[in-house]
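4.2 Preliminary Data

To establish feasibility before requesting continued support, the project team ran the inverse folding procedure on a target of 389 residues. The structure was first converted into the token representation described in Section 3, and no sequence information of any kind was made available to the design step. The complete token record follows.
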């Protein structure tokens, strides 16, 4: 355990606490078991280390990663037992999905050690959610996504703006810093502002590594796929990247991949849960996620520039930004007459010359325009939707 403590101490020293992700203040840290999921690279590890550094007694907390070589010969449940006997109160386990039978052992830790608070994180959203269902009433689950435009402004440019609800944005109730010119920063955000690690350089290389690791290792390993199926996931993502927004034709995709038609929907779900695509559904399901898939987008605009490159289409970039930012606080579905529906509100997304024609005669309809700084009446600047979390 000494080596684990040394590694933890080093990480804690290197953890910067000047900026917190949107989820930091929303987590009920008093819960006995907390699960934090999300794609690789969005800042889950930093968030839990910040909490330890700022809020907890270092002597009663321990952070470990399930990838540590320590777990080649030790069990999680034994570590928890030893830690509790030493007076430990807070056990943080990162990359939990790398540990075989993790959900079973977490159940045992929860039941055997009521004095311990356990917080675990994982990147392979697919397997984490599968395991979390086994934990049922024990774990409180939170899902984290990449930076909003508001968070990007604060982290990259030290510009602080409050969070605004969609209602405030639609009513133009926004206060901005004096002389703030949003469009100066917005283009860079769309290209490389969604992942916090962009601050460290080599952004494109690191993003490609995350994509490869997730598709070639994470998903196949935990969905019991063979290597050739993992390659098909990469091919499918490449097809989507060149075609978005993509109206899925399952039969033609199956033919292109040489895969069974029945498997394509599963592949899309795996890639969506790993944080690389977003499937926009229609209203037929009534409940989140149950409607028929109307279009498939890449998950965020950084992926469009990284995967689509010269094929990056500005219309697709705008719609992707809208869907990505709005889904954190709202159920977004396809509109039968325009682009998106949120509750009973219709949204059409376009450039500064987009007209009202598409939404004429519809109550509660809004035109969301790129390349404008300020809104008026039912016209909303696209960038302002990035202030919602």
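Position-by-position output of the design step:
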């Amino acid at each position: 355990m000494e080596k684990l403590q040394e590694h933890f101490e080093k990480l804690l020293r290197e953890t910067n606490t000047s900026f917190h992700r949107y989820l930091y203040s929303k987590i009920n840290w008093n819960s006995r078991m907390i699960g934090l999921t999300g794609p690789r690279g969005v800042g889950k590890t930093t968030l839990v280390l910040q909490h330890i550094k700022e809020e907890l007694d270092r002597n009663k907390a321990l952070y470990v990663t399930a990838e540590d070589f320590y777990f080649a010969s030790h069990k999680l449940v034994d570590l928890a037992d030893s830690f509790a006997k030493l007076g430990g109160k807070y056990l943080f386990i990162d990359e939990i999905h790398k540990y075989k039978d993790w959900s079973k052992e977490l159940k045992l830790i929860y039941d055997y050690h009521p004095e311990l608070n356990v917080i675990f994180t994982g990147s392979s959203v697919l397997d984490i959610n599968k395991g979390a269902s086994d934990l049922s009433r024990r774990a409180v689950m939170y899902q984290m996504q990449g930076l909003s435009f508001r968070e990007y402004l604060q982290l990259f440019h030290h510009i602080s703006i409050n969070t605004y609800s969609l209602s405030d944005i639609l009513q133009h109730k926004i206060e901005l810093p004096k002389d703030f010119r949003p469009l100066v920063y917005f283009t860079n955000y769309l290209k490389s502002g969604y992942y916090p690690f962009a601050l460290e350089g080599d952004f494109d290389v690191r993003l490609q590594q995350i994509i490869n690791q997730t598709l070639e290792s994470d998903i196949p390993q935990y969905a019991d796929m063979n290597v050739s199926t993992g390659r098909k996931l990469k091919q499918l993502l490449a097809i989507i990247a060149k075609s978005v927004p993509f109206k899925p034709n399952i039969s033609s995709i199956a033919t292109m991949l040489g895969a069974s038609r029945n498997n394509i929907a599963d592949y899309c779900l795996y890639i969506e849960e790993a944080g690389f695509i977003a499937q926009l559904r229609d209203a037929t399901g009534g409940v989140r996620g149950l409607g028929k898939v109307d279009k498939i987008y890449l998950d965020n605009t950084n992926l469009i520039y990284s995967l689509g490159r010269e094929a990056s289409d500005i219309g697709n970039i705008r719609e992707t930004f809208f869907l990505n930012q709005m889904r954190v606080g709202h159920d977004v579905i396809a509109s039968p007459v325009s682009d998106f529906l949120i509750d009973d509100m219709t949204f059409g997304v376009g450039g500064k010359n987009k007209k009202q024609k598409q939404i004429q005669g519809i109550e509660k309809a809004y035109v969301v325009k790129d390349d404008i700084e300020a809104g008026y009446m039912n016209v909303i600047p696209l960038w302002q939707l990035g202030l919602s979390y």
